[in-house]
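In this section we walk through a basic example: taking a raw amino acid sequence and producing a predicted 3D structure, encoded as discrete structure tokens. The instruction is simple. Fold the sequence below.
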Amino acid sequence: MRRRNRMGYKGYQGRGGGSSTFLKILVCILAILVVAGGGYLLAQQGGISLPSLPSFATQKPDETQEPGQTDTTPDPENSTSPAPTAQPSQAPSITPVRAVEVTLSQLLDGSAQRRVEQADCDALVVEVKGEWGKLQWPSQAALAQQLGVISSTQSLTETLNSLAQQEIYLVARVDCFRDQAMSAANAGGSLLMTRGGNRWYDSMGMSWVSPVNQQVRDYVTQLCVELSKMGFDELVLDSAYFPDQGEVHVLAQSDNYPEARTAPVETFWKQVSQAVKDSGVVLSAQVRGDSLLDGGAITGMTPKMLDQYAQRVWVTLEGVDQTQVQTVLTQAGVDQARQITGQEAASGQMIWG
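The resulting token sequence is shown next.
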């Protein structure tokens, strides 16, 4: 059988029987194909087949390869290279501070800055809500108004603006659930009671309300939001857990004082953390060293919880070995850059650093 090849000549399928002229022409055609296209011939019994020629029209002039050079560009679909691993986000950096505690009167009369300098500190701590429940600013919280604990002066806000311009790091300490005003009013039915049905008092003669109570949690959270907008750099929450000082063994098991106390404490910390997360304020916790050594079994505030919710942990040692406390916190994930301990100076002031 005869067929016409791509050059227009008639070829013969078979080994013999053709003229010498035809063979010469065929050899010339094959030589041209080999030189021009880099092709090759595949000889088969009963005929000769030609491979497909490369497409020169699609090759860009600037992609010409040197002889012997191989293309190492990976194929996106067939590449076996591992995908880049996402790096974990880093924890926010915390400014190291050395702080001195000042009273509200020292803050308002202008002597706080001098005390900061005398103590060789760069930060000050002022209590804006203590265990009596009194607020040192004109809060808008409805419960604060009902309890009659609101300050009517704007002096604190004005003073904070002045200190901020002097680049002093400002820390507000807030007593959360050790609150005599809320306890006296039994706000939301949250008072902690003894098994005998009486109000419970800690070793300092103070009564507590329960972190379980939603009204109490909402109230403290609202106060923290207000403070975060006043110019403080950091909020330190004290007594933000169940009590651990005094005869805690006589506390009556109830909805206000459950056997499992970690969950309600974490609920509070999760709520307040969410409420102030966009304010830029540092949210920290103040705890007793001995409560850390027992893993937070009494308070419900565990070292792991501190790592998760507190950007800095302020620790009062009171006879507890500092190395032990540091070890417990470090093992929970709170590195030493996020730990700060307090000690009383010769002047009687508390120095943190």
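Looking at the output, two observations stand out. The chain has two domains: 2-52, 99-352. The longest helix spans residues 20-37. In the next section we compare this with other chains.
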